[in-house]
Design goal:
With 421 residues, the protein is α/β, with parallel strands linked by helices. The chain contains twelve helices and 21 strands. The chain has helices at 18-25, 34-47, 65-73, 83-91, 108-117, 127-139, 178-187, 208-226, 254-265, 278-281, 314-318, 408-412; strands at 4-7, 10-13, 16-17, 29-33, 53-58, 77-80, 99-101, 121-124, 144-151, 173-174, 191-197, 233-235, 271-274, 285-296, 301-305, 324-326, 337-342, 351-358, 366-369, 391-395, 398-403. The strands form three sheets. Strands 4, 14, 15, 16, 17, 18, 19, 20 and 21 form a nine-stranded mixed β-sheet that branches. The longest helix is centred in the middle third of the chain and has 19 residues, at 208-226. The chain is globular and about 70 Å long. It starts with a strand and ends in a 9-residue tail after the last helix. The structure holds ligand LLP. Ligand LLP is lined by residues 58, 61, 79, 102, 162, 199, 202-203, 237-239, 275-279, 314, 318, 375.
Length: 421
């Protein structure tokens, strides 16, 4: 459930009419609902109540400072995957004890940064990385809590570009080698082995792959404990999918996911960490755009928007589906007709949808892409020198620009022309 609903025929974000924001901010822009973000975070926090746990929001999904502050104020931890994300989390007031550091290629500089500023744990992804972290920690006179990410060779049944738990993927160490790798980790100075980490992919629409992976994790926990390791934390990653196409998809709910976690891992006496990103932010955001032209092509009509692939890359990159709705609610029974919905960027890949059944729309009308709060603004670029799309947050009847649209001057002034040119 989200807070983007029609009221008196006009799409609202909570209590604010979307056209009122468009009039102030201009289009295109991302629009987030504070109530929806809070609601989604609480679904996980409440779902795991009773088990010692920390919900570490995967901030790669949406890392705006306002979003991090809002979630941090509720008690959320953060899953970061770069020095930049670590800096963002700290800048938003998240204490180091609530930050976990994931990612397969952490550099020495990033490790130093986390150790200096404080970190709950580093999730290691390979033996070379483990040895480097040990070296860095020793050189700083620190001991850093670590988990090792295991690759359970489970098929997440999701888009190939976002599946991470098969043996052919670059992530983690093969689960079959875990005992050997844990033995080395335990022997290395500067590392305190506290748990196990797994993340099998994103936009999972079935609980079974999670259940399979977590079952393997439970057996591994017992095995590693028998080997003498004090396994006391399990980081289960993120990945729970959201209904992009509401009419025909209903992925499992967070409450069902949490019940499964409890069932499979609840008796291990471990602290549970989860790293949801998409489920918290995805349906808490829309991308609002204006129709520039309706163009009649040969055998097909094109709805040309002022948003483009640089603003929301998911359709071009993963052929992903986003519901696109008219901001002014079409009258009941109005006939729908198929159109291709495209942006103004100079490549055919700049297509959001083909043959999408839409109500009649004309230049100047507003449309909204639903489910755009995760992996939307964070993946935007300035391709075609289109300014980074601004972000707006709504709470009840108030809204604020939480990242302004850069001016052309600001964009151009980031370049430097060498004196010798
Ligand atoms: N933890 C780790 C270690 C991850 O790599 C990811 C996502 C997450 C947590 C959060 O997964 P989520 O709960 O959001 O599914 N850009 C792609 C998604 C890439 C996901 C990468 N890793 C997209 O737009 O679909």
């Amino acid at each position: 459930m989200d807070h983007f609903l029609y009221r008196n025929g006009v799409l609202h974000a909570e209590d604010v009419a979307v056209p009122d924001i468009a009039a102030v901010v201009g289009t295109p822009f991302y629009l987030y609902s504070a109530a929806t973000l809070r609601r989604h975070y609480r679904l996980f926090a409440d779902g795991l109540e009773g088990l010692p746990h920390l919900v570490c929001y995967a901030m790669k999904a949406n890392s705006n400072q306002a979003v991090l502050k809002l979630l941090g104020d509720l008690g959320a931890g953060m899953d970061v995957v770069s020095g930049g994300e670590y800096a963002r989390a700290r800048a938003a007031g998240i204490p180091g004890e609530r930050i976990v550091f994931s990612g397969i290629g952490k550099t020495r500089a990033e490790m130093r940064m986390a150790l200096e500023g404080g970190i709950r744990q580093v999730n290691l992804e390979s033996e070379p990385e483990m040895r480097v972290l040990s070296e860095v920690a020793v050189s700083m006179g620190k001991v850093v809590p670590v988990t090792v990410r295991v690759n359970p060779d489970v098929d997440a049944k999701t888009h190939e570009k976002i599946a991470t738990g098969k043996k052919e993927n670059k992530f983690g160490i093969p689960i079959a080698r875990a005992r050997e790798v844990y033995a080395e980790a335990a022997a290395l100075p500067g590392l305190d082995v506290v748990g196990i980490d797994v993340h099998i992919g994103s936009q999972l629409t079935d609980l079974q792959p999670f259940r399979d992976a977590y079952g393997l994790l439970a057996s591994l926990t017992r095995q590693l404990r028998a080997d003498g390791h004090d396994i006391r934390r399990l980081d289960l990653g993120g990945g729970l999918g959201i209904p992009y196409e509401r009419s025909n998809s209903a992925p499992p709910l967070p409450v069902e996911y949490c019940a499964m976690v409890r069932e499979v891992l609840g008796d291990l006496d471990c602290e549970i960490e989860i790293e949801p990103g998409r489920l918290i932010a995805g349906n808490a955001g829309i991308l609002v755009s204006e129709v520039i032209y309706l163009k009649h092509g040969e055998g097909r009509d094109f709805l040309i928007l002022d948003a483009a692939m640089n603003d929301l890359i998911r359709p071009s990159m993963y052929s992903s589906y986003h519901e696109i709705v008219a901001v002014h609610e079409p009258a009941a029974g109005v006939p729908l007709a198929p159109v291709d919905i495209v942006g103004p960027v100079c490549e055919s890949g700049d297509t959001f949808a083909r043959d999408r059944a839409m109500p009649p729309l004309a230049a100047g009308d507003l449309v909204a892409f639903r489910s755009a709060g995760a992996y939307g603004a964070v993946m935007a670029s300035e391709y075609n020198t289109r300014p980074l799309v601004p972000e707006v947050l709504v709470q009840d009847d108030q809204f604020a620009v939480i990242r302004p649209r850069p001016t052309f001057d600001e964009i151009i002034s980031r370049d430097r022309v060498p004196a010798w040119l």
